[in-house]
Write a structure and sequence with these properties.
By secondary structure, the chain is an alpha+beta fold. The protein has two helices and five strands, in the order E-H-E-E-E-E-H.
């Protein structure tokens, strides 16, 4: 998980081991546009979720999922 540093994100961070996850928090001042949605990649699927607009979509595509994984890895390395 890459998330904006916040109280809620720090609560999630404490559950990383239990939820089999690794997390990195980034400063809002370094990334002022922040995170206004959630993107999950699993298998050959991508889930795009907007909590503000209360909507989401799941796309099933190996190519799109692989590209999103690559983008995530690049972001992880630079976070």
């Amino acid at each position: 998980m890459i998330a904006e540093d916040s109280h809620l994100a720090r609560r999630h961070l404490k559950k990383d081991q239990q939820e089999l996850r690794r997390s990195k928090l980034i400063s809002k001042k370094d990334f002022p546009f922040g995170f206004n949605n959630e993107i999950n990649i699993f298998g050959n699927k991508i889930a795009l979720i907007s909590y503000k607009q209360i909507m989401g979509i799941i796309i099933e595509s190996k190519d799109l999922a692989d590209t999103q994984r690559t983008i995530f890895e690049l972001a992880w390395e630079n976070a």
